[in-house]
Specification:
By secondary structure, this protein is α/β, with parallel strands linked by helices. The chain contains 10 helices and 6 strands. α5 packs across α8.
């Protein structure tokens, strides 16, 4: 009750503003109507395994061409809330690099919706993609960990930010493309506390799915440590 009263007082003194464009909001929510309508959410139909958007309506059992060609994958399911494009880029980059950490709650709400079938299939613990400690010291926060904690509040699932670590310092993935991204993060992750995750179904959280190289290396480390399954959930993906 006190939190609600405090928020109402703040709203009267400092009107709530759209997380994307900064304009004052006339209604409840985190985005103005224009910015909300500009976002390209990923709805069905999409690949039942990796979540890649498909152009035609399906029965929900169709795989995309990439998943049909892959014999094995470290992921059980992958889902993303948005297409990574000009409409979503500023919202995510401001959160990731410009200290707009207050965006975490809004973006985690999108993850909660996008991951409904992951949670329905059984999930036991949320794990964020980790930063190397040198980058964490420079940036001061791990955007994936902030998303994971907010998502934990929505779902009631425990969040483990300690077990999966990035032991190898790598260059930012944005500097690479294709095979170079794979080489950059190869064997960069390990599980420091396998006893916390062994036999459990993990939901791996990150901000953007580009080629999936980082998520794949994290998943391989988790599987090596004995987790039962790994699902991935990201705010956006490059389509």
């Amino acid at each position: 009750m006190l939190e609600i009263l405090w928020q109402k007082l703040l709203d009267n003194i400092l009107p709530r503003r759209c997380r994307k464009c900064g304009q004052p909001l006339s209604t409840d929510g985190e985005l103005c109507e224009r910015c909300l309508n500009e976002l390209n959410f990923i709805y069905p139909p999409y690949c039942r395994k990796c979540g890649f958007p498909l152009e035609e309506e399906t029965s929900g059992k169709t795989l995309c061409a990439a998943c049909l060609q892959k014999k094995r994958s470290p992921f059980r399911l992958s889902r993303s809330a948005l297409r990574y494009d000009e409409a979503s880029k500023n919202l995510i980059l401001a959160f990731k690099f410009m200290d707009k950490t207050e965006n975490a709650r809004l973006l985690a709400a999108m993850l909660n919706v996008a991951g409904r079938d992951i949670f329905a299939a059984g999930a036991e613990v949320i794990v964020p993609v980790p930063l190397h400690y040198t980058r964490l010291l420079k940036r001061k926060y791990n955007q994936s960990a902030l998303l994971a904690r907010e998502l934990g509040r929505y779902t009631g699932l425990p969040v483990d930010c300690r077990s999966l670590v990035r032991h190898k310092r790598t260059r930012p993935q944005v500097e690479f493309s294709g095979l170079e991204r794979i080489k950059n993060v190869k064997n960069a992750f390990s599980v420091k506390h396998p006893e916390n995750l062994v036999g459990r179904r993990v939901v791996l959280i990150d901000d953007v799915f580009t080629t999936g190289s980082t998520l794949k290396e994290c998943a391989l480390a988790l599987k090596k440590a004995g987790v039962r399954s790994v699902d991935t959930l990201t705010v956006a993906r490059v389509c």
